[in-house]
Amino acid sequence: MTLLVIFINSIKEKAFHVFGTSKRSINMYREVEESQTLLINTQSKILAGQNKKVIKLGFGQSPFLPPKAVLETLKKAVHHKEYSSVQGDLELRELMAKFHKRHNGLEVEPDNILVAPGSKILIYNVLLAFEKADVFIPAPAWVSYGPQAKLAGHHIIKVPTSFEERWRVSAKTLNKAAESKQHKASILIFNYPGNPDGLTYEEQELIELAKATKSLDMLVIADEIYGLLDHNFSHLSFANYYPERTITTTGLSKWCGAGGWRFGAAFLYKNIEPALKKALIGIGSETYSCAPTPVQMAAKTAYKDYEETKAYLDYQIRILKQIGNFCADRLGASGIRVHSPQGGFYLFPDFSQHKERLNNRGIKTSAQLCQLLLKETGVALLPASAFGFEDEYLAARLAYVDFQEPGEEQDFDLNTDCPNIIEGIEKICKYIGR
């Protein structure tokens, strides 16, 4: 049985065409749209294949290569084709536990770490472990949380946020959302530094949120995949404030520039219910089996030498912080509302103040805005509707990653190394302001 095409219990009848002939039959399959992030990447590649210049600010893929030592380890490990355990290599899990304890005080036992081909499947498997649950998802939120909760058969409760609140979930908004509960089990999924907003939480905000989640007896999935790219080197794991029921997810895709390697990890809480842990391992054994063994061996190198990895992170963050602040400052100067980034490589510009002008040009949804922007200027963004907003909310995610990593002997220079980003930002400002 696959994850994306499965038979459903309640089968609805409808008419459809098969190979051009009309035939009355039944719909046996789940309706699952392609991930918006992958779709925009595909569309950009199609345009590029037509010799049209595309400034790729839509797909959030790190432009940095993994550290040399990590690359070399992967090359040397390529002959390892054996399966590992479902949980992952024990030495690797020990290294990860030590690394995160030193980096931000996150405490986890190696036996409570699950390694998988990406954190995406781990989040989904946590959802699959519950028969019925209320899944609380902030808006904006990463594009896959909602579809995954829907696939798992859960009740989705949107937690609204606002530009003025810096897109943060608060104890107040969470308690208000909880009034719509339908099931005993409650799960909050939240991600920080955030995708799509690039923002993080202050300690007091985490303390208050932890009190609310505890009082509501929630399981929290803290997606901290961008935690190591906190621009102020001060990421605070939610598990430190709500250790009772927080599962932290992370991986190599963002901070190590290895998205296509598919490596993720989930840090389970200390006294996790045996039945839940057993379910997670069981689901893993029936879906992904294990993370690729050569990639696990490369990950050991990534997590082994903290000082060496920290220097690599510092190098990235200096560059990302400079680019992100430039983009935010320039957009803000042109009258586009946006918060300066605090982590990762995203901005979430809000164009709603230009709504009347855009509406007069026939642009009434964020999807239309992004489609026309791509068609008329070659700049790819991802619409706010992909992140949990109503179609009419005019905002978009901007991933400032379309640049070349400078060579070893070169210092980073914004004008020299980021011509596409500079051009793209100027085109956005001009397009919105005209």
Summarize the structure.
This protein has helices at residues 36-49, 68-76, 90-104, 119-128, 145-151, 171-177, 203-215, 274-286, 293-304, 306-333, 355-360, 366-377, 414-417, 419-433, and strands at 12-18, 21-27, 55-56, 113-116, 134-139, 155-160, 186-191, 219-223, 246-251, 264-267, 346-347, 379-380, 382-383, 396-399. With 434 residues, it is α/β, with parallel strands linked by helices.
Largest pleated sheet: 7 strands, mixed
Report the CATH superfamily of the largest domain. Answer: Type I PLP-dependent aspartate aminotransferase-like (Major domain)
The residue ranges in which pLDDT falls below 50 over 5 or more consecutive positions are 1-25
> SSE order, as H and E?
EEHEHHEHEHEHEHEEEHHHEHHEEEHH
Distance between the termini: 52 Å
Broad shape: globular
Total strand count, please?
14
Give the number of domains: 2
Continuous helix count: 14
The CATH class label of the largest domain is: Alpha Beta
